[in-house]
Amino acid sequence: MSDLRFKVVEKAFGKQPQAVETPAQRPAEMFASKVFDRDKMRHYLPQDIYCALVDVMDNGTPLDKSIADAVAAGMKQWATEQGVTHYTHWFQPLTGGTAEKHESFIEYGIGGDVVETFSGKVLVQQEPDASSFPNGGIRNTFEARGYTAWDASSPVFIIDDTLCIPTIFISYTGESLDYKAPLLRSLRALNNVALEVSRWFYPEAKRISTFLGIEQEYFLVDEDLCVARPDLLLTGRTLMGHEAAKNQQLDDHYFGHIPQRVVAFMKDLEQCALQLGIPLKTRHNEVAPGQFELAPIYEECNLAVDHNMILMSLMHNVASRHGFRVLLHEKPFKGVNGSGKHCNWSLGTDTGVLLFAPGKSEDENLRFLTFVVNTLMAVYRHNGLLKASIMNATNDHRLGANEAPPAIISAFLGSQLSGMLDALENSADDRLQQTKKKVGLRFDLPQIPEILIDNTDRNRTSPFAFTGNRFEFRAVGSEANCACAMIALNSAVAQQLKEFKQTVDALVEQGAPLRNAIVKTLKEYIQTSKPIRFEGNGYSDAWKQEALRRGLDCETSTPLIFDNYLTPETVKMFESVDVMTAKELEARNEVKWETYTKKIQIEARVLGDLATNHIIPVAKEYQSKLIDTVYKTMKIVAQEEAEVLAADNLRLIREISQHNAAIAENVKRMVEARKVANKITCEREKAIAYHDTVASCFEVIREHIDKLELIVDDRIWTLPKYRELLNI
Ligand code: ADP
Ligand code: MG
User: Fold this and answer.
1) Alpha carbon distance 68, 123 (integer Å)
2) Test site for ligand 1: of 187, 293, 298, 469, most ligand atoms within 8 A of the Cβ
3) Kind of pairing, strands 86-91 and 162-171?
4) Which has more pLDDT, 137 or 391?
5) What's this model's pTM, rounded to 2 decimal places?
6) Do 393 and 594 touch, CB atoms closer than 8 A?
């Protein structure tokens, strides 16, 4: 082991778990202590202002600016009592991360003295100098105005000394420049139309909510080891590194005992999250060594997305207190599982009905099938778009690999629900098959209680799976702002439900009883959407062939997958539900292509640098030692004997030369390809060139480097190896 690497590894493996103070409060007591939630609103706001604000939050009543001053005053009082000195509009630009610019409460008072103020005006709206945020050409730098505006449906919260106000971010001309604005629009569209449809079954329903429960997978790597790997540091993934002899073959990490250093990190993170009102519930080891998962209890979709964004920042902060780096990249290590962000998505009424949950009566089951079948139709019609919504340069490495959802969107229903749909499709008399109750399973040991068997099975290989009372969109990437996927899904289902309602209404107008009209339409949908249903192994090659035959989107090149956002069907869909305009979609795609190019460009540079100034020099150093040995052997023994003695070394010397030459040649080819691609001005064409000619060089360079890692003396290899990075 090289001296440097040895020191880093020794330090990393010698670290003890950080002590985490046991908090004085129970989880439920500390929950939301740093959030201006309804309890605090009631306490700090005059009653009429409180009622007006709740009306905005619950019923989407437009925010009356006249109440903003009173709300701001209450917020400031509470925040000041918590030691807060600053405030910021907190938003989600198209970078995929979050943005904040802190302002102190201080102002000059009338007499020139310094006072602390916080007015309704700054609560409601800000104008950040927004020229440096991705905007896809919507806003030229000379007209750089952008506005952030308060999203009253997501409560303000405190991080450190700063009051954070969730906001949308739009351009001077009103186009959205973030993820929150279209997400809110998609929720408005979906909730409104779902309410109309659900009223057929529940006339008393007043409101529909879209729920989202996000399972977040991640890796933890020791910080010192991470810093010694420039590729991890700069790109979030290892661009090289031979698999460790033992990785996940034994399945011994999944749900295994959580290492003490990691438990300390998790406890610390959970406390911080609970205080911010994020209901973290689940923690466990994931499949790959060094990989873990957390999941909060599901929440209203907009809040769940905000909470996930806050959580990702928190994870980075808390990890550094524990000497870790969090890797949210979808595929940090070759040969072991990547990370996703499984989005559990459902709809519910204000009367407590989950619309994707099977019911006890025939009416309830018709409601259940109505929502399930319309979702299937939406996923079928927009499968290419849904894939585009989860695609980017990083998730590209995870999809289609042998342990992650394939790069083809299909839906898994499980045998029972599939059976119900088949039965309805083939029934002559429109009768619905009843869902089966959970059946009891008695185990043959008396001390074990009866186990209730779920009536849906599971399929880990499906990107979009029905799981009992919700759909799980599993293809979303671990690093992504999952609003992007939710915008596409909500909008597609909203459009579908809207068309469904129109069709059923028309049939009723022609005299059909409502129930018959619904069943007739569903039957047609079941037939039409059949190609999206797939219960088999999504990883298999046979499925790729089959999916192609069924006409599903099988494109694998990320820049080309983005084209799905600009097809006439997609533009029509987004416009029909008032979520995004063609101009906004075009701008977003510009950003997608540009970001793709830049990420590949950074990886190419890092790979080229590491190959040239880490790998080749180390390999040459070892090679020269071998040459030296061979030379000396030749000197001290006779020619014939020397040839035998030096044979192994000579073979290695040649192998190293071959690998070095191949690396140098391919790095050169990659640099040339980059130069050519850089001259292209069209973002789409440039991204395609980066995909086809630059990224395509990575694998071959890596292969030679990984071979060298096996050959070169461990004592001089400078980069921490997989076996060191992946074992905490
Ligand atoms: P898994 O067994 O797939 O890991 P869990 O039962 O742990 O699933 O739940 C995963 C996530 O799904 C959690 O965030 C949970 O709150 C959420 N969830 C459960 N029911 C629903 C629902 N009806 N709608 C949305 N999310 C849900
Ligand atoms: Mg899970």
Assistant:
1) 7
2) 298
3) parallel
4) 391
5) 0.96
6) no
